[in-house]
Each structure stands twice: as structure tokens, then as C-alpha cells.
Amino acid sequence: KQSQLLEIKDTLREMQNALKSLSNRIEQAEERTPELEDKAFQ
């Protein structure tokens, strides 16, 4: 039972890290979007 809990904790930690990474990528894309729009209209 203890090992199952540890596995679940590890899985949740991995998911949390993946979500943080995804969130960071989305933020970077949002920051870059205005730059790309500026270049497109020049």
C-alpha cells in the first residue's frame, strides 16, 4: 500500500512538472505572437 502511494505521488509530481512546462511554453508563445504580428504587417 505504501509503495502505491509513493507511485501516485511520483505520477502527480510528473504531471505537475509537465503542466508547468506546458504553461511556460504557452506564455512564451503569447509573448512572441505580437512580434510575429508586427513582422507580418511590415
TrEMBL record:
Alphabetical UniProt keywords: Coiled coil
Coiled-coil segments: 5-39
Name of this chain's protein: Uncharacterized protein
Species, as recorded: marine sediment metagenome
